[in-house]
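Need residues for this backbone.
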C-alpha cells in the first residue's frame, strides 16, 4: 500500500515538472514572436521613411499627391504671368523660374516612379517661353510711339495753356504707364529714362504756369481779344415793330440802353406744340447795348408772338437768351 502511494506521488512530481518545462517553452516562444514583430515594424518604418526621400536625397514628408498639387499651383503661376494678371520684374521672374526648375526636377522623378513614365511639361514650357518674350532690354519702338501720341497735347502750348489740369493728368497717366514698362525691362533703358525726365519737366512747367496765375492772365487776354472781335450779325430782314419792342421791353438796368437791333432771321419761324399745332412765332435778334459804366455789350434774344387760335397771334414780346459779352462801342454799327 505504501509503495503504491510512492508511485502516485512520483507520477505527480513528473507531471508538475513537465508542465513547468512546457510553460517556459511557450513563454520563450512568445518573447521571440514579440521580438520579431518589433523588428518587422522597425523595418517597415525605415522603408516608409526611405520612400519619402526625394531624388535630391533630401528627406521630406511630402508625398506624390502633394507634389501634384504643387505642380498645378506652379502652372497657374505661369498662366497668370502669361495673361498679364500678375506682373513681376525681371529679377523676380528669373528667381521664380529657378525655383520652379528645382521643384520640377523632384516632381518629374517622383512622377516617373509613380507612373512608370516620363512627365510631359510642354504646356508649362510654352507658357514660360511666352513670358520670356515679355522682357526686353529696351521699350519697343511702337510702344514708345504710342505713349508719346497719348501725351502730345501736353506739349502743345495752345492746348495746355487752355486745359492745364487735363494735360497734367495726361502726363501723370503716361508716368504710370512708364512704371509698368519698367517691370519688363531686363536693364535700364536710357531713352525711356530721358523721356520720363522730359515728362516731369513739362508737368512742372504747366503747374508753375497755373500757380503764377497764367490761366487767369490768358483768360483776360482772350476776353480782351473777343471784345475787339465781337460784331452784330448782318440783318436778314427789317421790321420796325420788332425794333420798337426791343427798345421798350428790354431791362435797361440789367442790360443797358439799346444802341442797335438786327433781325438775323430771314422770316418768322413757327414753333409748334406737342400736337403739331402752332404755339408761337418768333424772329431772332442781335442787340447792342450800353450800360451806365460806358461799356457796350452784345446781347442775343428773340421777339415772339403767341398763337391765339385761328391763325391769329398776340402782341409781340421780348425774350433775352444771354449776353454774348462786352464789345467795343466803336464796332456797334459795323
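Answer:
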Amino acid at each position: 500500500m505504501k509503495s503504491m502511494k510512492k508511485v502516485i506521488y512520483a507520477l505527480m512530481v513528473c507531471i508538475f515538472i513537465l508542465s513547468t518545462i512546457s510553460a517556459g517553452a511557450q513563454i520563450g516562444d512568445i518573447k521571440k514572436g514579440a521580438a520579431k514583430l518589433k523588428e518587422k515594424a522597425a523595418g517597415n518604418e525605415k522603408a516608409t521613411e526611405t520612400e519619402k526621400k526625394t531624388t535630391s536625397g533630401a528627406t521630406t514628408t511630402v508625398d506624390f499627391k502633394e507634389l501634384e498639387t504643387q505642380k498645378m499651383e506652379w502652372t497657374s503661376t505661369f498662366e497668370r504671368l502669361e495673361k498679364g494678371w500678375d506682373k513681376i520684374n525681371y529679377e523676380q521672374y528669373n528667381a521664380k523660374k529657378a525655383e520652379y526648375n528645382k521643384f520640377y526636377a523632384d516632381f518629374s522623378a517622383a512622377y516617373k516612379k509613380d507612373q512608370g513614365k516620363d512627365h510631359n511639361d510642354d504646356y508649362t514650357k510654352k507658357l514660360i517661353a511666352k513670358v520670356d518674350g515679355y522682357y526686353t532690354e529696351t521699350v519697343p519702338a511702337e510702344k514708345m510711339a504710342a505713349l508719346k501720341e497719348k501725351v502730345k497735347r501736353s506739349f502743345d502750348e495752345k492746348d495746355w495753356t487752355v486745359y492745364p489740369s487735363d494735360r497734367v493728368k495726361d502726363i501723370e497717366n503716361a508716368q504710370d504707364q512708364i512704371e509698368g514698362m519698367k517691370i519688363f525691362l531686363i536693364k535700364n533703358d536710357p531713352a525711356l529714362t530721358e523721356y520720363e525726365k522730359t515728362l516731369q519737366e513739362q508737368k512742372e512747367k504747366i503747374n508753375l504756369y497755373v500757380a503764377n496765375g497764367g490761366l487767369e492772365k490768358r483768360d483776360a487776354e482772350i476776353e480782351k481779344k473777343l471784345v475787339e472781335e465781337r460784331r452784330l450779325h448782318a440783318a436778314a430782314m427789317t421790321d420796325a415793330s420788332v425794333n420798337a419792342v426791343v427798345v421798350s421791353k428790354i431791362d435797361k438796368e440789367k442790360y443797358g440802353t439799346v444802341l442797335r437791333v438786327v433781325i438775323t432771321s430771314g422770316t418768322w419761324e413757327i414753333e409748334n406744340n406737342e400736337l403739331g399745332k402752332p404755339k408761337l412765332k418768333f424772329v431772332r435778334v442781335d442787340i447792342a447795348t450800353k450800360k451806365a459804366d460806358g461799356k457796350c455789350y452784345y446781347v442775343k434774344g428773340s421777339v415772339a408772338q403767341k398763337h391765339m387760335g385761328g391763325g391769329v397771334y398776340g402782341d409781340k414780346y421780348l425774350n433775352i437768351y444771354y449776353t454774348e459779352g462786352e464789345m467795343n462801342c466803336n464796332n456797334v454799327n459795323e
